[in-house]
Amino acid sequence: MTDLDEEAATSLDAGTVASLSGAAMTAGQHLTGTGGDALTVDGISVRLAGREVLRDIHFTVRAGEFVGLIGSNGAGKTTLLRVILGLQQPSAGVVRIDGADRPRHAPAVGYVPQKVLLDPDMPLRARDLVGLGLDGNRLGIPLPTRRRRQLIDEMLRAVGAGLFGDERVGNLSGGEQQRVLIAHALISRPRLLLLDEPLANLDIRSEQEIVELLARVAREQQISVLLSAHEMNPLLPVMDRIVYLAAGRAASGTTDEVVRTEVLSKLYGQHVDVIHVHGRILVVAGRGDGPAEPVGEDGAHCAVPDWL
Amino acid sequence: MTHLLRMIVEPGFFGNAPVRVALLAGGVVALVSGVVGMFTVLRGQAFAGHALADIGATGGSGAFLAGINPLWGFVGIGVVAAGIMEMIGIRRPRGRDVATGIVLGAGLGLAALFLYWDATFSNTTGATISVLFGSMFVISGSTAGVIVVFSLLALTVVGLLYRPLLLSSVSTDMATVRGVPVRITGLLYLLAMAVAVSLAALTIGAILSTALLVGPAATALRLTSKTGLAVLWSGLIGIAATWLGILLAYDSFYWPPAQHGWPVSFFVVTLVFVFYLLAQLPAVGRLSGARARRARNGG
Known about the structure:
A: 308 residues, Rossmann fold, 9 helices, globular, B: 15 helices, 77% helix
């Protein structure tokens, strides 16, 4: 157990990883001494073309936590994730990963971007893309060693992509591509996994499967997950905490603490109602004296389900 | 059997020195174009490749005017143009296309001037034909040596950048997060592409070299789903088109109408196109496993 990196890299078996990563987390806590915060976002503000997109955002993600970053389209979810990754420079504030100032290319972070155009013409198999997650930054042509193949196979199986590892990524369905992209992000064994709208454009079944997969990964491998979505309901069973983004500001805490009429009304700067229906949560704008309007800039992508 | 072979390979084909140099230089150039071209197609940079090829005409015609080896003109202008394109090129695809178009326009304007001067003052009437449509059969032995050196250089760059290039063609953000210096990778690749099309400009001509860059790669995409194998196929298809083209051009010496031989560039480019069409046949698509998935689901 002394050489954690080596052991963790060679074995991705779910059972072993759970115990290994538990130890890794303890080691991380010991090193950083910040009580195991995997991510700290401290006073982040972003101005884009003179407009303040994000204002003074604060929240933390603890080790092994599953956190939903919820907000309607245009709320700044992608911008915030890009700041955390170092792809976008904030106008104020700092991001700390593993308690330390974020290294230049944030190697401790796995990332699944929102729009990855995987062309069916591209001669790139699912296993090739996962392999690029392992050593895509290295020079030269990858040598097909048995160890590399084994790592990729194990990763593919771990995300339920074992059956289509040899198929072109461009020919896979949306849900299957998400699994492959998640495998790509996870194979470098990051402490923190960021996913930008991974549930967008998925059918209901794939959506549930991806949520369950991510929850399992977070639990078993002690990886912190920060996932952005415009719809919080699919995440309610698995989210440890929520970061609710609206009007460029954020409220964070448990779902019960944040998704309340008082908190969200303050965040939106207008009255909104939070309604609980059969274990699901609806956020609706308006005072009830006119037609209730779904909150968000785009009615089709607000927190209200289509059937309303 | 010997008779049949004789009909295809005219006597003296392999004994002819210009033919031997053409087979060597043309083959090496086709390999480089095919390998580099696979990434051109993957990265969606066919327009940049085409622009770099066309701009080669500026360097080639300028070199004729100055009385130096056109190879230096082709390569020199290609590298400069690639640098300018990267400098003014914004990372968004549209900005990149605009930057490419602007450099292309300016370059071709100069080419028009140089070719005009070549024709009027220098009395090198062959310059236009040879710059635009290549000079496969008049490559000197020493030029062939320089071609091989440049080819090795371009192949080395692409071989070293194989993984970073592949990852950044999937997503520049994913590549950046994984620690790939995306901008420098892109610039080095653009330079390798400039070298590849410049060399092809010498063999099959500045305005035809795109065909050798994009055609074999587009064909290879249909043959396999393995990236490495696709790169290899792309190079081999380029070589096959070039060698067959040289053979046909040699044979065509006795063909109508003029009994003066047909241009080799025509054969190479046409063969590239024919290979591409053949690869579109449904039976070939099955090679790449494009349909394997539907079979799996149906079964």
